[in-house]
Amino acid sequence: MIDIPADEIKIEVWPIPGIHERGGQHCGYPSGVRVTHLPSSISAYVNTGRSQHINKTIAMDMILAAITHPNFR
Questions:
Q1: What pLDDT is attached to residue 73?
Q2: Strands of 42-46's sheet in order across
Q3: How many beta carbons lie within 10 A of that of residue 20, not counting itself?
Q4: What is the pLDDT of residues 48-72, one digit of tens each?
Q5: Inter-CA distances, 50 with 41, 53, 66, 68, Å
Q6: What is the pTM of this model?
Q7: Distance separating alpha carbons of residues 15 and 10, to the nearest angstrom
Q8: What is the Cα–Cα distance from 37 to 30, expressed in whole angstroms?
Q9: Which of 39, 38, 32 is nearest to 16 (CA)?
Q10: Residue 43: how many other CB atoms lie within 10 Å
């Protein structure tokens, strides 16, 4: 399996905490993740669930698939 070096990845959490003033129990918890591969400037944004860890894993898989796909090169 190919690993992407950590210095080539930028991870951002979205939405920014504190944007939503009103809401329920999980309001204000950022779950959306944007992962950007810096050398190729490919980014993937995932906001499918409440788990930031799972969203980050999905976004990393998307970046890895885009980089290693034969048509990308």
A1: 56
A2: 9-14, 32-37, 42-46
A3: 11
A4: 877 888 999 999 999 999 988 878 6
A5: 26, 9, 24, 28
A6: 0.75
A7: 16
A8: 21
A9: 32
A10: 16
Residue 41 in any domain: the answer is: yes
- Work out how many domains the chain is built from and give that number: 1
- Domain assignment present for residue 21? The answer is no
CATH number at residue 71: 3.30.160.20
The one-letter amino acid at 46: V
40: containing domain: 1-15+29-73
Banded pLDDT at 21 (limits 50, 70, 90): low
Angle, CA of 40, 45 and 47, to the nearest 5°: 165
Residue 25 has pLDDT above 80, yes or no: no
Check residue 23 and report its DSSP letter: -
CB 9 within 8 A of CB 59: no
